[in-house]
Write a structure and sequence with these properties.
The complex is a heterodimer of chains A (251) and B (432).
Chain A: H1 2-14, H2 26-34, H3 40-52, H4 59-70, E1 72-76, H5 84-92, E2 97-103, E3 114-119, H6 122-134, E4 137-138, E5 147-150, E6 169-172, H7 179-233, H8 236-244
Antiparallel strand pairs in A: 1-3, 1-5, 2-3
Chain B: E1 20-22, E2 35-37, E3 40-43, E4 46-49, E5 53-56, E6 65-75, E7 80-88, E8 106-111, E9 118-122, E10 126-129, E11 132-134, H1 146-151, E12 154-161, E13 166-168, E14 174-175, E15 178-179, H2 200-207, H3 233-236, H4 251-256, H5 272-282, E16 285-291, H6 298-306, E17 311-314, E18 326-331, H7 335-347, E19 349-352, E20 356-357, E21 359-361, E22 399-400, H8 406-429
Parallel strand pairs in B: 8-12, 11-12
Antiparallel strand pairs in B: 1-3, 2-6, 3-4, 5-6, 5-10, 6-7, 7-8, 7-9, 12-13, 14-15, 16-18, 16-21, 17-18, 19-20
The chains are: A alpha+beta (251), B alpha+beta (432).
InterPro entries (chain A): Epigenetic_reg_gene_expr, Nucleotide-bd_a/b_plait_sf, RBD_domain_sf, RRM_dom
GO cellular component, one term (chain A): protein-containing complex
Keywords (chain A): RNA-binding
Chain lengths: 251, 432
């Protein structure tokens, strides 16, 4: 742990001082005025400690947020046509919907539509998740059912700042002994992102496949019903029944 | 004189939900009686004082304008107004630079009489405080320390005459009716609002009389010698104009292009999506990856790492997002800043707390016009014959499907697929 801290300190010291220009940090500026000689080390130390002193939001605010997360349902496998009103009416049959928020997707690679639906109590939310998971539930289309889960903190947009969230960031130069490791981690991140978007693509393909397959079978079923319907209409049933000596009502 | 009260009435439209409080009142002697002048106010958690430099947002402009508050008042219709004397960014007056070298963070103070000198804007257009330091050698200007110059957002030491369209290092006695002293540094009095000179109060009272007659550039102050001019040597090397040179502009050119900052209208109420699209088009949008997904104060990190104020947003997770790779989008102020950030992230490593090197790139955003197809919702076109179908009465109302329908069977196929894919995702994100 000590080594890690030392490395951090060292990295901080190697940061070019020019990076610290043009930063409006009133307290730091006052400090620099107070020190007659520009003392980079002192300043960096001060600066560094500034980073750690992030203003945490009040406990209360965080607690309220956690409660909100608890009573929120995450819904996906919904069509991009679904609106807030549709979701509200869909879930109002279980309990009163307090708020609906869609999770935006910005990237080409992501085609997921999802929404966060806030209920009145955590218990209601749990029950709805259970019911929707137990039997297929359709919203604004069929036969693909929606999927419901408990919402997670990271899905929310308006997260309050974490209590004591400690943010330390520093630049690592190529001269740093661990630079290669960091480089590898960066490449790994990129690789993982590509893998995820590949799986997303595959998922789309699978969905399309199932969609087309079901479309075909639905058409076939529909044709069958039409055939039966027309056979009933034009008296074929009656004639066949008479021929085989059974009543037409058996069908 | 152009009084551009162009946005009267719109002012109260955008002030909802933003904390606001007036500060000290100013005495109304000698001023217009239909308004109450103030010396300070608190807006969105920031205290503003008269003669502060501020960012002013203008709709449709990627970068805010910068100006100095010279009047703060409330009209009898309770509209909050500020009179802002503009600073010009070199890019605003590019046509009139004529090869003049400018510093990276240099501004020109507007002077003279005419459009572009100042505007009266709704107070809500203020987007934040800006630290502008005057590095003029003018003896009326309390010289800034090296530290101050290094730490500030912008510096200025030249004026731009909006009438004659010339740059000059001379400062007139009054700009827009305000004593030039208020445009210079106020450093010697740390408590903001205290007079730079003992007769400050009388000056304020007097300034309204002169608001209609502007005295333009007949200032004959001697320039102090170089030794007093405390600016980092690196900067001095880049100053190429001598203090007496003025740049006259080709009058013919002026006809087709009047210079003036466009009129700012409203504080940016643009939703994030729109700003993001604009940034994406201008190339100032950056995608950061490998962040801690639970991170909330990303803007502070951007500020710490790149020393740029940028708006940033964590991308909300969904059920398919990696639980380890938090992503965020950052809107930098310009393409250059974004380029710089990306290249820094490429050549060096920005380490975040728990040993995460951050990856930066340009995101490939979805085109808003193109709606992707949603699979899994089937309809039958010939509704007339639907009577005999199991799927008949359930067109788009939400419902649980019943086990004796085709729909139910198909729904189960989807459930199977969902489960299968869930296992795939779980396997992908599993740590071995």
């Amino acid at each position: 742990m000590n080594d890690y801290f030392d490395a951090e300190q060292k990295a901080l010291r190697t940061v070019s001082p020019s990076l610290f220009r043009r930063r409006t940090l009133p307290a730091a500026r006052l400090l620099s005025l107070a020190i007659p000689q520009w003392n980079l080390h002192n300043f960096l130390f001060f600066y560094y400690s500034q980073i750690n002193l992030m203003e945490p939001s009040s406990e209360e605010e965080y607690e309220t947020f956690i409660e909100k997360v608890e009573r929120t349902i995450y819904l996906d496998n919904i069509s991009n046509q679904v609106t807030e009103a549709v979701l509200k009416t869909a879930l109002d049959q279980f309990a009163t919907v307090k708020n609906v928020q869609f999770i935006p997707t910005y990237f080409n690679s992501c085609t997921i539509y999802a929404a966060l639906v806030e209920m009145e109590t955590a218990k209601q939310a749990q029950e709805i998740v259970k019911e929707i998971s137990d039997s297929p539930f359709m919203i604004s289309g069929m036969p693909r059912p929606v999927r419901a889960q408990k919402a997670k903190i990271e899905m929310f947009d308006d997260r309050p700042k974490m209590r004591r969230e400690k943010i330390v960031c520093y630049w690592m130069d190529p001269s740093h002994p661990n630079f290669d490791v960091a480089k590898k981690l960066k490449n790994l991140t990129k690789k993982h992102a590509v893998e995820a978007s590949f799986l997303m693509e595959k998922q789309m393909e699978e969905e399309e496949k199932l969609h087309n397959q079901q479309e075909v079978s639905l058409k076939a079923n529909f044709k069958k019903y039409e055939l039966i319907d027309s056979a009933q209409g034009d008296g074929t049933f009656r004639r066949l029944g008479a021929r085989y000596g059974s009543s037409y009502n058996d069908f | 004189m152009h009084m551009s009260d162009h946005i009267k009435g719109k002012a109260n439209a955008s002030s909802e939900n933003i904390e606001f409080k007036w500060g000290r009142k100013e005495q109304n002697d000698g001023k217009k009686h239909d308004r109450q002048y103030y010396r300070s106010f608190t807006y969105d958690g920031v205290d503003y004082f008269l003669y502060d430099s501020v960012y002013i947002w203008c709709e449709g402009q990627p970068e805010p304008y910068i100006g100095k508050l010279t009047e703060i008042y409330e009209t009898k219709h309770l509209e909050k107004k500020v009179k802002v004397v503009w600073y010009f960014h070199p890019t605003h007056v590019q046509k009139y630079l004529r090869g003049t070298q400018t510093l990276n963070n240099e501004l020109f103070l507007a002077s003279g009489v005419g459009q572009g000198l100042f505007n009266v804007n709704p107070l809500e257009t203020i987007a934040g405080k800006c630290d502008v330091v005057c590095t003029s050698k003018d003896k009326r200007n309390p010289q800034a320390s090296i530290e101050e110059v290094e730490m500030c957002d912008y510096v200025f030491y030249k004026t731009f005459d909006v009438e004659k369209l010339i740059l000059s290092e001379r400062f007139p006695d009054k700009i827009a009716g305000v004593e030039v002293g208020f445009f210079f540094n106020q450093r010697k009095h740390l408590e903001i609002g205290t007079p730079p000179k003992s007769n400050w109060n009388s000056k304020v009272a007097g300034k309204s009389n002169s608001s209609s007659k502007f005295e333009t550039g007949h200032c004959s102050t001697a320039v102090e010698d170089e030794s007093d001019f405390r600016v980092p040597p690196a900067n001095i090397g880049r100053l190429t104009i001598s203090s007496t040179s003025e740049y006259h502009l080709n009058k013919r050119k002026l006809q087709d292009s009047k210079v003036e900052p466009e009129k700012p209208t409203k504080r940016p109420k643009l939703p994030w999506e729109e700003r993001m699209q604009i940034a994406n088009e201008t190339g100032s949008l950056v995608l950061l990856e490998n962040l801690d997904p639970s991170l909330t104060s990303l803007e502070d990190i951007v500020l710490d790492a790149f020393h740029k104020k940028a708006s940033a947003k964590m991308i909300q997770c969904n059920a398919y997002s990696s639980p380890y790779n938090g992503q965020a989008l950052v809107i930098f102020n310009s393409k250059d800043e974004a380029d710089f950030a990306i290249s820094e992230l490429k050549t060096r490593c920005l380490m975040l707390g728990d040993l995460r090197p951050i990856v930066g790139s340009r995101p490939s955003l979805k085109e808003t016009s193109k709606k992707s197809r949603y699979f899994g919702h089937l309809t039958i076109k010939t509704m007339k014959q639907m009577r005999s179908m199991d799927l008949r009465n359930v067109v788009s109302t939400s419902h649980f499907s019943q086990p004796n329908t085709i729909e139910f069977e198909m729904a189960l196929e989807w459930c199977t697929l969902q489960m299968r894919l869930k296992f795939c995702w779980d396997a992908l994100y599993k740590i071995c």
